[in-house]
Design brief:
alpha/beta, Isopropylmalate Dehydrogenase, 2 domains, 10-stranded mixed β-sheet, 11 helices, 10 strands, 39% helix, 18% strand
Length: 335
């Protein structure tokens, strides 16, 4: 995932978005500013509140700002998520969505040994949102699977495995029912696998995978799948390791990258300084690795691990009573 290079300074597009996005973003920026890296932050608007103020959920100025930056940090979107995040992915051709599922201490994980990556195709499948108008019989949605996009994401998954010392890639599909579209995915999966003879391969139906994530989550290393399946399995993965407050994500393309927590805007707790910022922070660590700043990423992650192990300053979702700000301050102390 890394660009394998560092720069004297980085221009980071910051889009806090809605609800708790504002709070978890501020907490994360505070920690990033404690690292020995020169960041120039440029702030953009997007989301529900932006729609109410301006009439558009994703202003063209924000999209241009993301294009001109080295990377983007995004907080959270509410009801306009499809008009914001999905559009950014499509406009910026961010074809790979990475969602790590990892067990951390004091987080009610199903197992201490869970550590796998879901690599999800980001540009096609059901999420092209090509739905025909209602008919007398109901409605119809189109699902697009292309050789180019699926080969690109599958190759990305195998290459990621090779670069990160992973020994196995699991392809997930429903080729027994979706014989043409997912049949094509499975065919391409094994074509690409031939280029990586040192990496073991297996494939499962998506429903079986959903069960195996519960019964044998330790057996997975890299999962690669299509858009909708990847979205659903990612949230199941979050349930394995303590909830959405601990799941980061990355959207990677040839011309840009966006990093965001998987959780939503959580309007019920917005503005109360009680949101868990760790998913946003883990997303920023993925950004640091993308930028090639691996030493700083290691420091940041080690500080989070120390705070989780100590369990003195945790937010309410993790069984503590600390505020968002207090948790961020504790992580800064442990840098």
């Amino acid at each position: 995932m890394s660009t394998s290079k560092t720069k004297d300074s980085y221009k980071i597009a910051v889009v806090p978005g809605d609800g708790i996005g504002q709070e978890v973003m501020k907490a994360t920026i505070d920690v990033l500013n404690s690292l020995d890296i020169d960041f120039e932050y440029v702030y953009g608007d997007a989301g529900d509140e932006c729609l109410e103020r301006t009439g558009t959920a994703l202003p063209s100025e924000t999209l241009d700002m993301i294009r001109e930056s080295d990377a983007c940090l995004f907080g959270a979107a509410g009801e306009t998520a499809a008009d914001v995040i999905v559009k950014i992915r499509q406009e910026m051709k961010m074809f790979a969505n990475l969602r790590p599922v990892k067990a951390y201490p004091n987080t009610n994980s199903l197992s201490d040994d869970i550590d796998f990556m879901i690599v999800r195709e980001n540009t096609e499948g059901m999420y092209i949102a090509d739905e025909e108008s209602y008919t007398d019989e109901g409605a119809v949605a189109k699902r697009i699977i292309t050789r180019e996009a699926e080969r690109r994401i599958i190759d990305y998954a195998f290459n990621y495995a090779a670069e990160n010392n992973k020994s196995k890639v699991t392809g997930v599909h429903k080729a027994n029912v979706l014989k043409k579209t997912d049949g094509l995915f499975k065919e391409i999966f094994y074509e690409v696998a031939k280029d990586y003879p040192d990496i073991a391969t297996e494939d499962f139906y998506v429903d079986a995978t959903a069960m195996y994530l519960i019964t044998q989550p330790e057996s997975f290393e890299i999962i690669v799948t299509t858009n909708l399946f990847g979205d659903i399995l990612s949230d199941e993965g979050a349930g394995l390791v303590g909830g959405l407050g601990l799941i980061p994500s990355a959207n990677i393309g040839e011309d840009g990258a966006l990093f965001e927590p998987v959780h939503g805007s959580a309007p019920d707790i917005a503005g109360q300084n009680k949101a868990n910022p760790i998913a946003m922070m883990l997303s920023s660590i993925m950004m640091l690795r993308y930028l090639g700043e691996n030493d700083s990423a290691d420091r940041f992650e080690s500080a989070i691990l120390k705070v989780l192990n100590d369990a003195n300053k945790l937010t309410s979702d993790l069984g503590g009573s600390a505020t968002t700000t207090e948790l961020a301050d504790e992580i800064i102390k442990n840098l």
